[in-house]
């Protein structure tokens, strides 16, 4: 996700509706809200606007008595990287023992790239609020690949005004799994835990060829503060989960049974068992995981998708066929991760004629240097290791489609039984490529990207005709929104239509407002923006603007938190963690 951009904050609407009070009259009865319409703002035009995160957007609230109220949106900041809260540095990298990692001058390594936010209450309305957030990248200053931090924030909420404040932060311990590798997007699970991600999993083939110079080993040396440490690539590239106990202690795990890939985020269907992933990079794959038990992702069945194209128009459409890769538990796969090398799993060759004659298959995936072809064959008895440690490579060998490009985040629309998925760039493997080993996806290039909607259905079967044990299986997908590439940059340097999305990244759906919130991470708009898209009216409204080159990130739609609603949102480079208070949109007076 992170493209080394400059970014900043977002906004908040903490303005209450005006009301007239007659001390001699009985209190006015609440009038229910009929609808909420986000009203977009213009693109920035001045130098000050272009260099600032700001909003001039608003929302029109229509009540059922026909009256209307307009509420402006504003940003409230919670924390900035490098800020000290309760004696602790926001965004600082930490080692295996939870100590801040410092350079030779004694300065901490601090991330300027906060990403995912999960804000929630541990014990309902009477409980404390906590927020888990990711920091995606660390300026390395010549020290090599640094471990990336996750922090647990203690949050205090004013129950009347909705205003929030972070009072304490603590690093989250992932020492049982070798630390965290590039945490990107994340979501709050239906069972009230934080589900995170490890993006851009390291290539185990390249690591084995030269472990000493690998970024995995540099990571291990920094994390363990040991110059002799050697890394293990199979520990990274997994879904993470953080549970917060009532006493405020965090318990963190990695779900090895959900496969290993470039996780953007996970979204979970209403059965609390079926999950879908975003796999970021070029020549990537779409996956589905069906857990054995609800609210428990420690064991389940992994599937990979095959795109059977039905249209090449307006971003394209396809029927989705699911290929079963295998079943496993976290414990089984973690044991394999600790004891297996790439060469234990696959035979390789560079001779195409030999490969064709001896059962090898040519594949092209992000696993091999971002989309280089390779000839592979799974060694006997290593199918489980291949499925869960080399999920994309194995999926390609099994016939799944490995041509998606910059697949980013996903979010669920529960009421309509749909999942939304962002494709930041419809390019490379998603266009017609006669030279690729397989060419399932054949679309017109849209460098501005697209958002797809996927329909969920019961009674679906996998490629082998076996019933999939879920009532929430994606059966098709089609483009819902597309950007528009300009034939030439405009006078300001914009390469995409300013009235449409460009390179969508983080998305979050609000059931209450029937609105898809969209954050851009683009080099095609001079200023990245955040959008509100109403899935009923189809209205797309620009609601915030980031500074030149900056990335909007970390969106979380919260429909009810102690009677308040929020849009959590952050920024990268420079970073900020903040929120939009949407509670005024629910006012009925």
In percent terms, what proportion of residues is strand?
A: 35-45%
| Number of helices, where a helix is a run of at least 4 consecutive DSSP H or I residues | 8
CATH level-3 fold name: Neuraminidase
Task: Report the uncertain regions.
Answer: 4-26
Largest sheet: 9 strands, antiparallel
Classification by helices and strands? mainly beta
Helix percent band: under 10%
Arithmetic mean of pLDDT: 92
The global form is: globular
Rg, nearest Å: 24 Å
Strand order of the largest sheet: 15-16-18-19-20-28-27-26-25
Signal peptide: 1-25
InterPro entries: PhoX, Quino_amine_DH_bsu
Protein name: Alkaline phosphatase
Organism: Neobacillus bataviensis LMG 21833
How does this model look, in words?
It is a single chain. This protein has 589 residues and is mainly β. The protein has a single domain (33-586), classed as TolB, C-terminal domain (Neuraminidase), CATH 2.120.10.30. Helices cover 9% and strands 39% of the residues. It is built from 8 helices and 35 strands. The strands form 9 sheets. It has a 9-stranded antiparallel β-sheet with strand order 15-16-18-19-20-28-27-26-25, sandwiched between helices. Strands 4-35-34-33 form a 4-stranded antiparallel β-sheet, with no helix packed on it. A 4-stranded antiparallel β-sheet has the order 7-8-9-10, with no helix packed on it. Strand 34 and strand 35 form a beta hairpin. Helix 7 (383-389) crosses helix 8 (391-397). The longest helix is centred in the middle third of the chain and has 10 residues, at 215-224.
């Amino acid at each position: 996700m992170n493209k080394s951009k400059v970014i900043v904050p977002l906004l908040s609407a903490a303005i209450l509706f005006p009301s007239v009070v007659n001390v001699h009259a009985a209190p006015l009865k609440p009038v229910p809200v009929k609808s909420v319409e986000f009203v977009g703002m213009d693109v920035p035009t001045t130098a000050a606007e272009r260099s600032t995160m700001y909003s001039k957007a608003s929302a029109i609230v229509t009540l059922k008595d026909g009256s209307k109220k307009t509420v402006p949106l504003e940003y409230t900041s919670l924390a900035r990287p490098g800020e000290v809260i309760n004696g602790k540095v926001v965004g600082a990298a930490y080692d295996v023992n939870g100590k801040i990692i410092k350079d030779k001058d004694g300065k901490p390594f601090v991330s300027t790239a906060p990403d995912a936010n999960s804000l929630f209450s541990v014990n309902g309305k009477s409980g404390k609020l906590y927020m888990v957030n990711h920091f995606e990248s660390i300026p390395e200053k010549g020290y090599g690949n640094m471990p990336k931090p996750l922090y647990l924030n203690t949050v205090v909420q004013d129950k009347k005004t909705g205003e929030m404040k972070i009072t304490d932060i603590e690093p989250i311990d992932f020492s049982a799994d070798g630390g965290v590798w590039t945490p990107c997007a994340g979501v709050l699970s239906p069972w009230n835990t934080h589900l995170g991600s490890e993006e851009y999993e390291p290539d185990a083939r390249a690591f084995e060829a030269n472990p000493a110079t690998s970024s995995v080993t540099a990571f291990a040396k920094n994390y363990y503060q040991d110059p002799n440490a050697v890394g293990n690539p199979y520990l990274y590239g997994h879904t993470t989960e953080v549970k917060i106990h009532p006493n405020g202690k965090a318990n963190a795990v990695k779900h090895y049974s959900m496969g290993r890939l470039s996780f953007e985020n996970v979204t979970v269907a209403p059965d609390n068992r079926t999950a879908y992933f975003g796999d970021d990079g070029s020549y990537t794959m779409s996956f589905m995981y069906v857990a054995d038990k609800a609210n428990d992702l420690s064991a389940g069945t992994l599937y990979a998708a095959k795109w059977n194209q039905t249209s090449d128009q307006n971003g394209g459409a396809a029927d989705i066929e699911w290929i079963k890769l295998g079943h496993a538990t976290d414990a089984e796969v973690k044991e394999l991760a600790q004891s297996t090398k790439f060469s234990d799993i696959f035979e390789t060759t560079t001779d195409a004629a030999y490969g064709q004659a001896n059962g090898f298959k040519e594949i092209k995936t992000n696993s091999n240097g971002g989309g280089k072809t390779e000839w592979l064959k799974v060694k006997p008895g290593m199918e489980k290791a291949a499925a869960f440690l080399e999920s994309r490579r194995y999926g390609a060998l099994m016939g799944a489609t490995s041509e998606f490009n910059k697949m980013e985040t996903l979010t669920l629309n529960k009421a309509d039984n749909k999942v939304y998925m962002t494709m930041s760039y419809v390019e490379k493997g998603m266009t017609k490529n006669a030279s690729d080993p397989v060419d399932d996806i054949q679309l017109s290039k849209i460098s501005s990207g697209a958002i797809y909607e996927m329909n969920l259905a019961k009674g679906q079967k996998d490629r082998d005709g076996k019933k999939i044990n879920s009532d929430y299986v994606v059966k098709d997908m089609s483009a819902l929104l597309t950007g528009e590439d300009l034939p030439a940059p405009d006078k300001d340097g914009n390469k995409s239509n300013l009235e449409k999305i460009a390179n969508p990244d983080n998305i979050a759906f609000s059931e209450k407002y029937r609105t898809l919130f969209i954050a851009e991470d683009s080099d095609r708009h001079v200023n990245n923006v955040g959008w509100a898209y109403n899935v009923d009216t189809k209205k797309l409204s620009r609601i915030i603007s980031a500074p030149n080159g900056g990335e909007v990130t970390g969106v979380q739609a919260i429909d009810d938190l102690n009677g308040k609603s929020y849009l959590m949102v952050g920024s990268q480079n420079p970073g900020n963690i903040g929120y939009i208070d949407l509670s005024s949109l629910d006012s009925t007076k």
